[in-house]
Design goal:
The protein is mainly alpha-helical. The chain is built from 17 helices and ten strands. The longest helix has 21 residues.
Length: 447
């Protein structure tokens, strides 16, 4: 005799007509499935027991397909109409483990990393009463569970923006997939019953490196880490996303016509398309960038069109995370510059262009961000003046030369000058506040 566990399984029974039948218990359903004319004999019982054993295994493994076994069965109309309730035996955590394996083909690598972090740290271990959220069965999920989870995360001190990202983005993506597979029959995110937390905490502000910091960092890489000098220079003066610059190939950069074609991204070793359709763009390389890249450009016969433009000393593609830890952070520490992400070189580029009066349309074409986003994020740097490209190029040249520190901290001349107590040269005659470059006159527009 077979003992059913947790209301799931398949056993051989004798029906009221004296014939053998299968008694099914699965997905919260019960059903008699008779085999027409199959008399209760020893031979027939052995035949049906073998069949029942296979079905029990499939039910246990979650692979049971009712219509394949019983196309004209007593419950076939429910399966054909999609009215079958979800299995009460599959938990949130069990489904998550299978769902996360498929996400690499659906979303970008860094998004998969966010999913893994948020589910393992916040969603699955959350205690709702005496149960972990991960142990809840999909069939039993209700809006109240999501509301409780949202409250728990808020109670942990997470900001509303973070809570919404976890509950209304990551978890919602998984539950949407569960609905598609029939494990959920209702939309738990119906706005009439469940809404995101109101975002009262402010969005993180733009935090660029100042022009002075920019020049100190560039010079430090030129003298201390020369292999990465052009990579850092390119970032400060073109403002790409690190995922975009690390995916650039030789064929994407045309120094003769001063352009670069950005249409790929590289995140955690995985290469894919850019962040958005708008991010696919051809950028104009500034004159100073072209000069630096020309100086570092290897002989044409030694490179292939699909070689990465920026690489490690060993010739491998640059990994942003490794670069930050091994190269970027040590330089900032050595120069006593407040650490910020390498990504913030993009903020430095955009805020500088706005501070000298560059148009939003030009900046949008360079960065791939919409004008609306740019003007919202960088509003405090926007000048009213309308400037053309020649003016932008001239200001870039001035900023790179006049803000640059006159001496390296290791320079003997600097030490000698400091020892003699000499001070910085005063401004030239007539060069009052009006005579300073836009870089030095930023005032309320400090970058």
């Amino acid at each position: 005799m077979v003992v059913l566990t947790m209301g799931v399984g398949c056993v051989v029974k004798r029906n009221q007509n004296g014939n053998l039948a299968l008694r099914l218990f699965f997905s919260g359903l019960r059903s008699w499935e008779g085999i027409r004319g199959l008399k209760d004999t020893s031979e027939n019982r052995d035949f049906l027991e073998a069949k029942a054993k296979v079905i029990r295994r499939e039910i246990h493994d979650g692979t049971f397909d009712y219509l394949r076994w019983f196309p004209d069965g007593n419950l076939s109309h429910l399966f054909r109409q999609g009215k079958v309730p979800p299995s009460p035996t599959i938990t949130v955590e069990q489904f998550y483990k299978e769902w996360i394996k498929k996400q690499g083909d659906r979303v970008r690598a860094h998004r998969v990393k966010d999913y893994v972090s948020q589910f393992n740290r916040h969603i699955l271990p959350a205690r709702l009463g005496h149960k972990r959220f991960g142990n809840l069965a999909f069939a039993l999920l209700r809006v109240t569970h999501l509301q409780d989870l949202q409250g728990k995360l808020k109670g942990k001190g997470l900001k509303a923006r973070s809570v919404n990202g976890i509950v209304h983005s990551s978890l919602r993506a998984m539950l949407k997939a569960a609905r598609a597979e029939g494990l959920l029959t209702v939309d738990l995110y119906d706005k009439a019953f469940f809404t995101p937390l109101p975002v009262t905490d402010s969005k993180p502000s733009i935090d660029p490196y100042t022009p002075e910091e920019r020049e100190i960092i560039i010079e430090a890489f030129r003298t201390k880490r020369p292999h990465y000098y052009k990579f850092v220079f390119f970032h400060f003066w073109q403002g790409p996303r690190p995922s975009e610059s690390t995916a650039l190939r030789r064929e994407d950069v045309d120094l003769r016509y001063a352009t670069a074609n950005i249409h790929r991204s590289r995140v955690q070793g995985h290469e894919a398309g850019t962040k958005t359709v708008r991010s696919n763009r051809e950028i104009r390389l500034h004159d100073n960038v072209v000069e630096v890249l020309k100086d570092e450009n290897p002989a044409p016969l030694k490179v292939k069109p699909d070689d990465y433009f920026f690489t490690t000393p060993a010739g491998y593609p640059i990994d942003e995370e490794n670069f930050y830890k091994r190269e970027w952070l040590p330089i900032l520490t050595a120069k006593k510059i407040r650490p910020r992400p390498f990504y913030n070189t993009r903020h430095s580029y955009v805020s500088f262009l706005y501070s000298i009066g560059a148009r939003s349309g030009f900046i949008s074409s360079q960065t791939g961000d919409s004008i609306k986003t740019l003007e919202a994020d960088y509003a405090k740097y926007i000048e009213e003046a309308d400037q053309n490209r020649q003016f932008v190029e001239a200001q870039i040249q001035k900023s790179a030369t006049q803000v640059q520190p006159p001496y390296s901290a290791d320079d003997n001349a600097y030490k000698l000058k400091k020892k003699k107590g000499l001070r910085k040269q005063p401004l030239k005659d007539g060069a009052g506040e009006e005579g300073r470059t836009p870089d030095l006159m930023l005032g309320k527009h400090t970058l």
